[in-house]
């Protein structure tokens, strides 16, 4: 699994005011737009293949073989996450308001959890193209960055979070929904899912629409919390303003995924 090597851990808060670590510098390329406008069309699919391969590698490793068997609770990941973000949403309603799609999701998601869980894996929690360092010339990931949300959990949820780029169409996060993937030289969502399954040796990602609905619900919960902080005056950046303005849009997208999973008319 491509990760930067850790050079030093300092737990003494007197040095810089908090515990910190140093990691090696990894020279390479970071892409911010999944449509890869800076690359020629014929080079883009290989970048997606490398990105897919890096996540499949992570999910294929046994946590216990890494000494990470106690890195998190190995079961009940989705149920805990739904409960956590539902509680945060309710707690922030006074500042950030109620949203019809969120209320629907809070009711629908716990009643439609997948009947079984895959074996727990180390999940990154925020796997996306701009958290990866690619080789300077090859379509290969040299380093996965930003592990702050990592834990033990459901690898299908981690993959679905990454797959949201195919269904995302909001102003604050660059997505691929509605774009001509063939003209861009990018794989379809179906092809991208097949690559992941082939690399992991599995037949399918079951309940994929549910997982994407859950991931978008989680993202909507994060945006809703940012709106609450913005209203309270504790988040004042321009980016926070953008996220705060898009809570309804991402919540509606999440409900649309739930409808694809059988929640009602699409």
Strand content: 5-15%
Q: How many strands appear in the DSSP assignment?
A: 6
Into which percent range does the helicity of residues fall? 40-55%
Mean pLDDT: 95
- Terminal Cα separation, in Å? 39 Å
What order do the helices and strands follow?
Answer: EEHHHHEEEEHHHHHH
Rg, rounded, reads 19 Å
Our count of helices gives 10
Low-confidence stretches: none
Main sheet attributes: strand count, strand direction, barrel closure = 2 strands, antiparallel
Shape: globular
> Could you say which structural class the secondary elements and strand pairing correspond to?
mainly alpha
Note the quaternary state here. single chain
Primary descriptors:
mainly alpha, 10 helices, two-stranded antiparallel ribbon, 266 residues, two-stranded antiparallel sheet
Note down, in words, how this protein is organized.
The chain is mostly helical and 266 residues long. Helices cover 47% and strands 8% of the residues. The strands form 3 sheets. It has a two-stranded antiparallel ribbon. Strands 3-6 form a two-stranded antiparallel ribbon. The chain is globular, with a radius of gyration of 19 Å. The model has no long low-confidence stretch (mean pLDDT 95).
């Amino acid at each position: 699994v491509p990760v930067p090597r850790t050079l030093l851990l300092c737990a003494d808060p007197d040095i810089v005011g908090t515990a910190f670590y140093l990691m090696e510098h990894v020279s390479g390329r970071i892409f911010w737009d999944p449509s890869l406008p800076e690359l020629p069309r014929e080079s883009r699919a290989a970048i997606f293949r490398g990105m897919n391969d890096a996540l499949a590698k992570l999910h294929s490793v046994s946590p216990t073989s890494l000494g990470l068997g106690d890195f998190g609770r190995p079961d009940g990941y989705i149920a805990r996450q739904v409960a956590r973000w539902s509680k945060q949403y309710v707690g922030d309603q006074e500042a950030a308001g109620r949203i019809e799609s969120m209320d629907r999701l809070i009711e629908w998601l716990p009643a439609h959890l997948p009947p079984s869980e895959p074996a727990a894996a180390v999940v990154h929690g925020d796997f996306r193209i701009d958290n990866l360092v690619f080789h300077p010339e090859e379509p290969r990931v040299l380093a996965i960055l930003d592990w702050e949300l990592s834990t033990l959990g459901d690898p299908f949820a981690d993959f679905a979070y990454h797959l949201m780029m195919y269904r995302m169409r909001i102003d604050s996060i660059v997505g691929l929904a509605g774009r001509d993937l063939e003209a861009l030289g990018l794989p379809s969502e179906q092809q991208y899912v097949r690559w992941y399954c082939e690399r992991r040796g599995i037949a399918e990602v079951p309940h994929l629409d549910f997982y994407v609905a859950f991931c978008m619900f989680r993202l909507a919960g994060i945006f809703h919390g940012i709106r609450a902080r913005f209203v309270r005056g504790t988040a004042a950046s321009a980016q926070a303003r953008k996220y705060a303005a898009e809570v309804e849009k991402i919540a509606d997208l999440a409900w649309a995924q739930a409808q694809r999973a059988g929640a009602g008319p699409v």
